[in-house]
Amino acid sequence: MNKVILMGRLTRDPEVRYTQTNNTLVASFSLAVNRRFVRQGEERQADFINIVAWSKLGEFCSKYFKKGQQVSVVGRLQTRTWDDDQGQKHYITEVVAEEAYFADSKKDGEAGGTNFDATFGTMPTSNSGSDFEISSGDDLPF
Asked: What CATH number is associated with residue 90?
């Protein structure tokens, strides 16, 4: 089984490009994910994980994810190689996102804030009480 679940902060705004063959949108960004344990007397370490999101999920990420925001990504680990113009082989390991969530406890800039934890393709249906319901759908709800 190949499944990755990450929560971290975006190190930069997502970068969008389109494939040459069929003009499919792909968004790429990096997450700073804190390590679980800290050695005594040392600062907390973080890993910087490359993420790619395709099509509608990529569009969602590029539109609503911003540098510094805490997000959660579910996906699969993938490695790939390519040769550059000088014939040198390059390797990269990245997470291909299948789901993406807002993970901040409240939206930036809102005093008192609302609990805006949502996933791509869904939005809270009510704000009454401490929890909210999530409806499903294929299109962006806003």
From this structure: 2.40.50.140
